[in-house]
Structures are given as C-alpha cells and as structure tokens.
C-alpha cells in the first residue's frame, strides 16, 4: 500500500509521491510540492503576484486558464490572494427561485422583485 507522504502547498490535500521510485524530470519535479498541475499553476501565479512579478490584472488573466471554480478547495492564504486579485468573490450566484425565497423568509412584506444575479454569500 502506498504511504501518504506529501501535503499539497496549494490545497492542503494529502497525497503520495515517492522520489525514490520516480526519476525526477522537468515534467514531474512539481509533484514533490503539489498534488495536481492545476495546484502548481495556481500557486506559481499567486507567488509571482505576491512577489510583484505580475500585476493583479496579469495574474487574473493567467488564473483564467486554471480551475479555480471551487475556491473552498484551496488553503485560506490562497483564497485570500485570489480575492485580492479579484479572481473570486464572496458572492454566490442565485440559481433558483427557492434560494431567493429562503433568503427573504424573514421579510414580513415579501413581494417578488427583480434581483441582481449575485447576492452576498451567507456562510
């Protein structure tokens, strides 16, 4: 059985990678620090942004090529940087009428009204 011996620097997921079993190459060196290539890309972009190598706009454009759809899968420090860059927000998209009704259940004078597509995230 493979021993879980690594923790991803970007998402914190535990994974296995044996440097003795694999000959490190330019294509696989990153597996020592990140569990997926997506995590590697996100981490490197954030690092470049924090080191002032990239502007927020440049970082945001590069992050558009990465899968950051589930921001909760990343470590808090990564999420904070993603918010700072503007790549993710604290708002969630309303996907159904029920969500708006639940949000407004405490309103005594509930009247259907046009809503913005985004509402503040309730967590």
Total beta strand runs: 4
The tally of structural domains comes to 2
Q: Tell me the overall shape.
A: globular
> With helices defined by DSSP (H or I, 4 residues minimum), what is the helix count?
4
**Element-by-element helix/strand order:** EEHHHEHE
* Rg for CA atoms: 20 Å
Outline the biggest β-sheet: 2 strands, antiparallel
The proportion of strand residues reads: 5-15%
Global structural class: alpha+beta
Terminal CA distance = 38 Å
Approximate helicity band? 25-40%
* Mean of residue pLDDT values: 77
Q: Strand order, main sheet: write it out.
A: 1-2
Low-confidence stretches: 93-97, 107-115
Walk me through this protein's architecture.
- By secondary structure, this protein is an alpha+beta fold.
- The protein has 2 domains: 6-88, no CATH class; 90-123, no CATH class.
- The protein contains 4 helices and 4 strands; from the N terminus they run ββαααβαβ.
- The chain has helices spanning 37-50, 56-63, 76-85, 97-103; strands at 6-7, 14-15, 91-93, 118-120.
- The longest helix has 14 residues, at 37-50.
- The chain is globular and about 40 Å long.
- Mean pLDDT is 77; it is low at 93-97 and 107-115.
């Amino acid at each position: 059985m493979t021993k879980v011996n690594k923790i991803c620097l970007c998402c914190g997921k535990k994974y296995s990678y044996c440097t003795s079993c694999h000959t490190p190459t330019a294509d696989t060196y990153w597996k020592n620090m990140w569990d997926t290539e997506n995590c590697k890309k996100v981490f490197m972009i954030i690092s470049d942004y924090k080191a002032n190598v990239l502007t927020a706009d440049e970082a945001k454009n590069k992050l558009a090529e990465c899968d950051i759809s589930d921001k909760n899968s990343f470590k808090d420090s990564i999420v904070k940087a993603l918010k700072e860059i503007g790549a993710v927000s604290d708002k969630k998209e309303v996907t159904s009428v029920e969500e708006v009704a639940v949000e407004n259940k405490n309103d005594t004078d509930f009247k259907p009204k046009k809503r913005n597509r985004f509402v503040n995230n309730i967590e």
